[in-house]
Amino acid sequence: MNLNQITVPSKDLKVSVPFYKQLGLKLIVDAPPHYARFELPEGDATFSIHLVDELPQGEGISVYFESDRLDEMVAELKAKGIVFDEAPEDRRWLWREARLRDPDGNKLILFYGGVNRKNPPWRVG
């Protein structure tokens, strides 16, 4: 099995599509006002947003995007005006993460996990 795509909700694709393009995703399906799909700069998975009347309540959705040049990428995005909730920080689970929210409040975590992403010291045998 392979993870193919993640879809997150949006109340306004006219705002969300430019945001994700600014993050570096490439728009490959544009079906306004209901749907948009993107390719990521690396890998085969795709990412999409779809129009909803109401956003999820509570903790909602968290989407992780990995980059081995995390600190550079965050600096570049900040220079473009992207606002982060948390700057890159080393976490106790051995990942380095920066956190932000998309225009609809979906949690985005830009991170670098390296070998620890799939093989942390506490991995189950």
UniProtKB/TrEMBL annotation:
VOC domain location: 2-113
- Entry-linked InterPro entries: Glyas_Bleomycin-R_OHBP_Dase, Glyas_Fos-R_dOase_dom, VOC_core
Keywords (alphabetical) are: Dioxygenase, Oxidoreductase
Entry superkingdom: Bacteria
The record's listing under Pfam families reads: Glyoxalase (PF00903)
| Gene3D superfamilies linked | 2,3-Dihydroxybiphenyl 1,2-Dioxygenase, domain 1
Q: GO molecular function of the protein, one example?
A: dioxygenase activity
Protein name (record): Glyoxalase/bleomycin resistance/extradiol dioxygenase family protein
Q: Which organism is it from?
A: Sediminicola luteus
Q: Highest lineage ranks of the organism?
A: Bacteria, Pseudomonadati, Bacteroidota, Flavobacteriia, Flavobacteriales
